[in-house]
Design a protein that fits this description.
By secondary structure, the protein is α+β, with helices and mostly antiparallel strands. It has helices spanning 79-95, 123-133; strands at residues 11-13, 30-40, 49-53, 56-60, 64-75, 98-100, 113-118, 140-150, 155-160.
Length: 171
């Protein structure tokens, strides 16, 4: 919006087709971000998490981590406008391959850093994807967002924090 000097949003998070196969009206003349795959990241770096909470140390299960495959498509009446906006999106992610709260303070606290990279796709794979989605092809680009954590807050174990070390033994 800032780069184009617009006062309205051009980007929506939505499916490419409705359940009946029609195109959602809210996608018209928008850039549409669609989740096309959710891949569980099985390479665990952390097996538990201890958090300080109200004078206690609590243990919660480790977060589950996912990689997201997104397709960003431009659904504009003017084909040239679609290509222009896809170019701006590719430029944005080329400049910002990693998104963090330092650079983007409105990101949720639960998302410390996001790594975004272009997902290469040959024409056969692209054709199969659009066929599987049940949509007509639109100018688009695919991205993989790596290591998106999902953390529940269910406490598994709580221990009182030790605040007195006068016995001479430090823990």
């Amino acid at each position: 919006r800032l780069q184009l000097g617009l006062d309205h949003t051009l980007v929506v998070l939505n499916s490419l087709v409705n359940a009946d196969g029609s195109t959602p009206e809210k996608n018209q003349n928008k850039v549409v971000i669609t989740l096309i795959n959710l891949e569980y990241e099985s390479n665990r770096q952390f097996y538990g998490a201890n958090l300080a909470f109200a004078q206690q140390q609590v243990r919660v299960n480790p977060p589950v981590v996912f990689n997201l495959d997104l397709i960003i498509s431009a659904q504009f009446d003017d084909y040239a406008e679609s290509l222009k906006l896809l170019s701006l999106i590719a430029g944005f992610f080329q400049e910002n391959p990693g998104l963090s709260r330092n650079s983007f303070p409105t990101m949720p606290a639960s998302l410390p850093n996001l790594s975004v990279e272009i997902e290469s796709s040959n024409s056969s794979k692209t054709h199969n994807l659009w066929t599987a989605l049940g949509a007509k092809y639109l100018p688009s680009i695919m991205y993989k967002v790596r290591q998106v954590p999902i953390q529940g807050k269910q406490i598994q174990l709580a221990n009182q924090a030790i605040s007195d070390t006068s016995s001479g033994v430090e823990l």
